[in-house]
């Protein structure tokens, strides 16, 4: 197991392409200046021992040294002691709707992005709980198996977008089933599902799935995201809004929050329903409800001691810089002798 202590220094790698561009511009400018002095053959006779190959090698060594120095600043650390840690917490799986209707802008900047912002804050406040992610539209997929790795959870959360599920729709029942199956098979009372959706689903399968989850001791709380009045769904191509989605008859599609379904699902699985607003998505109220669950003791193996490895990369950087410093741009003496010998033979 390894980690970097100071990841902010990774931004320094952005300097590499800038350096490369400057080097290319330097070579172009140098070539133009030499051309002004005369023909290429004449110039090569005047400065016969200037080595282009060595200049390139020096540049490569400098960039490799710079890269090693950046990694040293980031301080790579490797785990040296694996410890079994026991925590008390709940197992939580968030089911988040990624259908096209979640792009509606009755919450700013849109329903999905607002939900993701709130979830990121929720993850920052978790302690001891395990978290998983399920995404769904017309089908449901486990995006992140249940884990205590909150950094991974935030990384997966950030990547969520409507294009991740090819089949459109709002298949809430499939999301609940996938989430229920992701829990362990024990009979613990510490398992909860948070369902975030506009609820545009009118079949009874979602309610049946909630009842089945309740029989397994799984709580389901629902967050209704959107307005009951309804708004059009933006049509976005390459990050640019091209208008609004239309149905097969050319009419603008209006998406509305189906709060009745979400209230029923929550009531069938001993959870709570919250309607999201711009100021408060409602995760606080949901977590308060989850806090009523019996917390189970969760055992995890994790690295508690890490050893710094920056010195290896710092040493490598110094060696590369030193070699770069020693290399002259002029052709080596032994290469000169070879050239002189060839000229003498001629």
How much is the radius of gyration in Å? 30 Å
Could you tell me the mean pLDDT?
85
Taken in chain order, the helices and strands follow as EHHHEEHEEHHEHEEEEEHEHEHH
List the domain count as a whole number: 2
Number of strands: 13
Category by helix and strand content: alpha/beta
Descriptive tags:
Rossmann fold, 6-stranded mixed sheet, 3-stranded antiparallel sheet, alpha/beta, 24% strand, 2 domains
Topology:
Layout (H helix, E strand, L loop, with lengths): L1 E3 L10 H23 L2 H7 L5 H23 L1 E14 L1 E7 L13 H14 L5 E7 L3 E8 L2 H10 L12 H11 L8 E7 L7 H11 L2 E7 L6 E2 L1 E4 L2 E5 L9 E2 L3 H10 L4 E3 L7 H8 L5 E13 L1 H17 L6 H13 L1
Parallel strand pairs: 3-4, 3-6, 6-7, 7-12
Antiparallel strand pairs: 1-2, 2-13, 4-5, 8-11, 9-10
Helix pairs in contact: 3-10, 4-5, 6-7, 7-8
How would you characterize the overall build of this protein?
It is a single chain. With 346 residues, this protein is of the alpha/beta class. The protein has 2 domains: 2-75 and 309-345, no CATH class; 86-226 and 258-300, Rossmann fold (3-Layer(aba) Sandwich), CATH 3.40.50. It is 42% helix and 24% strand. The strands form 4 sheets. It has a 6-stranded mixed beta sheet, with helices on both faces. The protein has a 3-stranded antiparallel beta sheet with strand order 1-2-13. Helix 4 (111-124) links the parallel strand 3 and strand 4. Helix 4 runs antiparallel to helix 5 (150-159) and helix 7 packs parallel to helix 8 (259-268). It is flat, with a radius of gyration of 30 Å. 29% of the residues are buried.
């Amino acid at each position: 197991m390894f980690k970097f202590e100071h990841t902010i220094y990774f931004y320094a790698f952005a300097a590499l392409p800038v350096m490369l561009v400057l080097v290319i511009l330097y070579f172009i400018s140098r070539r133009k200046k030499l051309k002004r002095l005369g023909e290429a053959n004449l110039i090569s006779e005047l400065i016969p021992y200037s080595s282009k190959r060595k200049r390139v090698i020096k540049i490569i060594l400098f960039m490799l040294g710079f890269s090693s120095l950046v990694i040293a600043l980031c301080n790579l650390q490797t785990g040296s002691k694996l410890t079994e840690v026991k925590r008390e917490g709940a197992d939580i799986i968030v089911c988040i709707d990624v259908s096209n209707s979640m792009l509606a802008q009755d919450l700013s900047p849109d329903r999905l992005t607002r939900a993701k912002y709130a979830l990121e804050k929720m993850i920052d406040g978790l302690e001891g709980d395990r978290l998983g992610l399920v995404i769904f539209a017309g089908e449901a997929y486990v995006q992140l198996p249940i884990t205590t790795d909150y950094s991974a959870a935030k990384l997966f959360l950030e990547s969520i977008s409507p294009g991740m599920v090819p089949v459109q729709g709002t298949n809430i029942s499939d999301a609940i089933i996938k989430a229920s199956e992701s829990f362990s098979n024990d009979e613990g009372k510490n398992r909860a599902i948070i369902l975030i959706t506009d609820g545009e689903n009118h079949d009874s399968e979602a309610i049946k799935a909630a009842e089945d989850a309740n029989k397994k001791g799984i709580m389901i709380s629902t967050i209704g995201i959107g307005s009951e009045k309804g708004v059009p769904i933006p049509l976005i191509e390459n990050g640019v809004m091209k208008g609004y989605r239309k149905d097969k008859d050319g009419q603008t599609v209006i998406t509305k929050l189906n709060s009745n379904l979400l209230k029923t699902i929550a009531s069938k699985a001993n959870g709570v329903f919250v309607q999201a607003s711009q100021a408060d998505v409602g995760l606080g109220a949901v977590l308060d409800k989850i806090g009523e669950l019996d917390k189970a003791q969760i055992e995890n193996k994790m690295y508690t001691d890490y050893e710094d490895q920056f010195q290896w990369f710092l040493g490598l950087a110094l060696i590369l810089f030193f070699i770069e410093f020693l290399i002259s741009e002029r052709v080596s003496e032994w290469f000169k002798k070879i050239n002189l010998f060839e000229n003498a033979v001629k």
